C-alpha cells in the first residue's frame, strides 16, 4: 500500500482527491491548516467525511511550518507528495500578497526540500490557469507565461519554477497541473457558482463583474481529482499539464442553468470588470490525454445539476455558511 502525503486535504479539490485515493487503496496522510479564508465549517464537513476511512490520517498543520512537517516525514514512509495547499483567489491576493508568497511559493519549497532529504521521488503540484492571462486561446502549456497579472498567479509561477529546480538538481519526478475553474458540490464559497446558487436560492441579488459574457473553462471537481490521481501514478520527468473542461462557457449561461435547476429567477447586479480578472479561459488538454490518458467526463450541464442537487439536499447547512 503506497502512502501519499496530501496537503490541503480539507480543501475543495484536496477532499475529493483524498477520497479517490482512499477508494483506490492508497494510504493518505492529509494535512491542512484549516485557515479561515472562508467558512471553516465547509472544511470540517469535508474532513469528517474523510475521517470515516481507516487509511486516512490527518494532521492540522501549515506547510509553512517546516519543522512540523519534518517530523511527519521522519515517522512515515512517504511514497509521493501532492501539494494542493494554497492561498487561492485572484482578487484577495491583491489585498494580502505576502501570505500568497509564503504559502504558495515558500510552502512548496519546504515540501521539495523535505522530499530531497527523505528521498521521496514523486511530486504533484497544483497550479493555475491564471498564469495564461493575455495569451492566445486555447491555452497550451508551452506558452511563455512570464507576465502574471496577480500576486496569486506570480506565487504559483514561483512554485512551478522551484519545482523544476528540484527536478533538475535532485531527480524528483514532477507533474505540474494547471487547473481551470473548478466547481462542484461542497465547493469554495468565494467562487461564483457556490455563491450564485446560494444567492439565487435565497432570493438575494447576485453580483456579476462585467456583463456576464466573460467565459471560463469550467471543470467538475471529480474530473480534476481523477486527473490528479492519474498524475501521481504517472512518471513524467518534469511536465506541466492542463486539466480543464476543454470548452469555455459564458457566465450568463451558467446563471441560466442554475436558474433552471433551482426553478428560480436571478436578480443580477452588474459591476465594472475587475482589472486582475481574465476575460476568458480555454484549456488545450492534448497533453493530458496523451500523458495521463485523461479527459473530462462530466458536462457543464450535468455538473451544475449535481452541484445544485447537493445544495438543495444540504440547504439548511449552506444557509449558515458565511460568504467571504
UniProtKB/TrEMBL annotation:
This is Nucleoside-diphosphate-sugar epimerase. InterPro entries: NAD(P)-bd_dom, NAD(P)-bd_dom_sf. Keywords: NAD. SUPFAM superfamilies: NAD(P)-binding Rossmann-fold domains. It comes from Desulfurobacterium pacificum. It comes from the Bacteria. Residues 6-307 form the NAD(P)-binding domain.
